[in-house]
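#struct-queue
[09:14] JT: dropping the first one here, sequence first, then the structure tokens:
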Amino acid sequence: MTEGVMRANEGERASHGGPDDATTDIDGAVALVCEPAFRADAAGQLARALGGDGERSVLGILYRHDVRAWTTALRTQRDRIGSAAAVAVGPVAEPGRTRDRLPVREVPDPTDLTGVGIAVGEWLRARDDDERPVVCLDSLSTLLQYADLERAFRFLHALVAQLRSAGATAYVSVDPGAHDEATLATLRTLFDAVVAGERTTAGTDEESAGADGRPVATDGGNPDSGGAASGRE
């Protein structure tokens, strides 16, 4: 275990308490969301991210949900989204598959945390000053299947710094039942808040997307090839 993780465990960085202490009003903060995997559906995670007022620019970092599930969830919230994109990692990347007008950056190797970080950084830098970016990492527990705690800690430390620098709101979901308390305590030190996930009733089927089936507006990219997550050069 590295010195950085050891310091976190020793409490050098303040922990923000358990999920019972948290609030869901975290605009501009980076939150760890504790929710069982069976409750962490794409529609519910997106609805949580869009809980504030006004349109948001949304990026999904997908380790668990496939792009189709994320796109369907986006349709249900299209009136609240200014632009949307995804970073699809590992098995959910499905290289070469046609996307439904959603800019997708594919990272086929789930151990390539550097590639994920680069994709997120490019998307954040492409945002205009008047945009309100929000990022959802759908399963930290899945990420931890491909990286040990030490490596994941370093990645998250850099990712959280990127998000804070960009003024982005972010929700990182973890299944508390999949990890011991020492691991969860280490992870909590990285975040501004810890929230308890609540299941929403947001629809996930095609009918809930509206009669016209119109996809949400995206921030660029070739509709046929998917394009980069940033959607801009």
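[09:21] JT: and here's the second one, same format:
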Amino acid sequence: MGLLSELEAALRLWGTIKGQKVSDEEKELLKAARDGEDRMRGVFIQMPGDMTTFPYIQAGSKHFNFDDPRLTARYRKAFATLIKRGWVEYQGGIVFLLTADGWDAADNLD
């Protein structure tokens, strides 16, 4: 399975967004990754879709998969924006990690 085109495009723009307001969806993703359990702390996974679900993002231990495909897409877009901010980096396969700046941003949310 490859990465979604939206995420591949975001990787090409890694670290290019500075100073824009952080969306509520971005905040939720950051908090979920920050608060993940055990080995899931700071980890994001692009989960594949199938005949009954759309591809979605897992942040930490939380799955951002909704019955409404529009809502699922909003969280994928927010995740792509986190990549463009340089707060998330690609590890390989379907795995992404918070960067040092990403950890700082997540820690400053509360």
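[09:30] RK: nice, looked through the second one.
[09:31] RK: The longest strand covers residues 43-47.
[09:31] JT: good to know. Residues 69-85 form the longest helix (17 residues).
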